[in-house]
Amino acid sequence: MEENVEDQRLPHKGNAPEYVSMDKLADLGVLYWKLNPNNYENDEELNKIRESRGYSYMDLLDLCPEKVDDYEAKLKNFFTEHIHADEEIRYCLEGSGYFDVRDKDDRWVRIWMKPGDMIILPPGIYHRFTLDTNNYIKLMRLFIGEPVWTAYNRPQEEHPARKEYLKSLKEINERAVEAH
Ligand SMILES: CSCCC(=O)C(=O)O
Ligand SMILES: [Fe+2]
């Protein structure tokens, strides 16, 4: 996506849009599933993911002005580039929104989340979130154990999760080179 944005809710694909493959996202450590959002209370596939990855905690987040205290302030924080010490796991049940992640060359990749899209962002990846022009999203948040939502705003080059992430990127890259 474009580097500089005036209205964060617009797509910002630029004049010559470039599309990023799921493989390239996987190379950044971003995992993706397509699930059935109408069946989230009884979804075997979701349960399997939760069990195998230890996601014991779950809550639902409805992002709209009526349901969120400090709505504008929250959205502003979500759109401030940051990392976490843990994975960020989000499953879109209704509405839509953009998760932006930095690629290897520090360019933004915009992920448009729609109902059924589930992503896991690895610890230490720089990212941000915004609603799109529909102004509504319902997200499931998952976590291993007691949730920690602390965001560390960029720059965080000395943060252990950041260092670990850069190391894992290097390893993914080396494996890709060997495979060719
Ligand atoms: C509303 S979920 C996405 C925002 C985010 O990056 C976060 O909660 O840390
Ligand atoms: Fe985050």
From TrEMBL:
Organism in which the protein naturally occurs: Lithospermum erythrorhizon
Location in or out of the cell: Cell membrane; Cytoplasm; Nucleus
Cofactor: Fe(2+); Ni(2+)
Keyword Metal-binding among record annotations: yes
Pfam families with a match to the protein in the record: ARD
GO molecular function list: acireductone dioxygenase (Ni2+-requiring) activity; acireductone dioxygenase [iron(II)-requiring] activity; iron ion binding; nickel cation binding
Entry binding sites for Ni(2+): H82, H84, E88, H127
Name of the protein this chain belongs to: Acireductone dioxygenase
Matching SUPFAM superfamilies: RmlC-like cupins
Highest taxon listed in the record's lineage: Eukaryota
Cofactor info, note text: Binds either 1 Fe or Ni cation per monomer. Iron-binding promotes an acireductone dioxygenase reaction producing 2-keto-4-methylthiobutyrate, while nickel-binding promotes an acireductone dioxygenase reaction producing 3-(methylsulfanyl)propanoate.
Top EC class of this enzyme: oxidoreductase
Entry's family note: Belongs to the acireductone dioxygenase (ARD) family.
